[in-house]
Specification:
This protein is mainly α. The chain has a single domain, classed as Arc Repressor Mutant, subunit A, CATH 1.10.10.10. It contains six helices and two strands, in the order H-H-H-H-E-E-H-H. A two-stranded antiparallel ribbon has the order 1-2. Strand 1 and strand 2 form a beta hairpin. Helix 1 runs antiparallel to helix 5. One of its GO terms (molecular function) is DNA-binding transcription factor activity. It comes from Rhodopseudomonas palustris. This is MarR family transcriptional regulator. InterPro entries: HTH_MarR-typ, MarR/SlyA-like, WH-like_DNA-bd_sf, WH_DNA-bd_sf.
Length: 144
Amino acid sequence: MTEPTAEQVEQLTRAFERFTRRFKVAEAAAAADNALNVLDAETLVFIGDHPGCGVSDVARFLNVALTTMSSAVDRLVKKTLVERQRLEANRRAVALTATPAGLQVIETHAAGYRNACRMMLRSLDPQERNELIRLSEKIADNET
C-alpha cells in the first residue's frame, strides 16, 4: 500500500473533527440530561458492558489514575447508578454493576450515539452507507 498524501490526511482530519464534534455534542447532551460529566458517563458505560468488573479494570480501560476512577465510581454510587458488591472470595475486592437506573442512563447515552450516526448516514445513498460502514469497520479493526 502507498502512503496517503498530505492533502488526503488533512481532508480526513477535518472530516473526523466534524464527526468527533457531533459525537461529543451527543455525548454531552446525554450526560447533561443525567447530570454526569464525561468521565462518569464513560465509566458507567464500561461498567454496564462489563458487570462485575473492578475499579482498576475501568481505570485501565479509560487510562485514568485509580484515585480518579475511585472518585468517579463514588459519584455513580451516590447517584444510585452503580452498585458495589464485596466478593466472598476476596473481601478486599469490589465488583461493580450498573443498577436498573444506570442501565437506563446507558441506553440514553447509546441512543445519542445512534442518533448522531443516523444523521450522518442520512446524507448518503444506501450503497454509500454500506461502503462507509465497511470502510469504517476496516479502519476500526486495524490495530496498527
